[in-house]
Amino acid sequence: MEETINFAKISEYNAFNNQETLHPLVSVVHLDKAEPRQLRRLRYEFYTVFLKQIKCGDLRYGLNNYDYEEGTLIFLAPGQVIGENKDGYYQPQGIALVFHPDLIQGMSLGNTIGNYSFFSYAVNEALHLSEQERKIILDCFAKIEYELQHAIDKHSKQLIVSNIELFLNYCERFYDRQFITRDQANKGILEKFEELLNGYFASEKPYSIGLPSVAYCADELHLSPNYFGDLIKKETGKSAQEYLQNKIIEVAKNKIFDHHKTVSEVAYELGFKYPQHFIRLFKKRVGVTPNEYRSQ
């Protein structure tokens, strides 16, 4: 049994799904044209977006069921793997937008593609669409598909890439909406983040692991680092790293008031490998050194 099926070219993925290749670097793939196939791990060397035409009420989003039923979007960056190897066959459904990094090289989207952080979200952090949003997404796909079927001219590439960029910008808007509509769930994650940090600094972990990282906290909360970072930014107005540093300073201030501890001991208790790094961060955030703060 082959462990992972790798797609290096758009044409390979089109052939896999019984789809004609109209452009070597981009395709809108109608997955219902594919033959039923066995469950496998699939790796894509290009940007891939799935619009799954399924009932999303049965999907688990993080640790909770999600109640949108009109469809969901899943984003994969080049090199990501999806699926699993096990017995059983399934009939693919929905639509996939796939485009190779070479398509956007030298264009504005090539410079900004890294700003669309949802390409690094986990699958269970998908974008769940309302009916109106789904129609907008389908309209974007239709425009891209029209250009692929149109005779190639000097405008083709610009129009295709512009429509991909328009699609991604709509997805950013819809993710912002999703963060807002999931406000209560997000506040629950923020509370768990705070509890995680309190428990971390009350334990021996700073000695054994060091300072908590954004990636560590995201993993403990069962979220991808990018989704976790975006969620914290939306909820607090601060980056996850800024939130972490604020917490470190908050804990440090309490420890500094214990005059039996040296500044170096406080730094090690917080997880700093070198006390001077702690002193530098403290002065940057508070405006004075730890010793000056203590004397005040």
UniProtKB/TrEMBL annotation:
GO molecular function: DNA-binding transcription factor activity; sequence-specific DNA binding
Keyword Kinase: no
Superkingdom of source: Bacteria
Record carries keyword Repressor: no
Classification via Pfam families: HTH_18 (PF12833)
Keywords, ordered alphabetically: DNA-binding, Transcription, Transcription regulation
This protein's name: Helix-turn-helix domain-containing protein
Species annotation: Pedobacter caeni
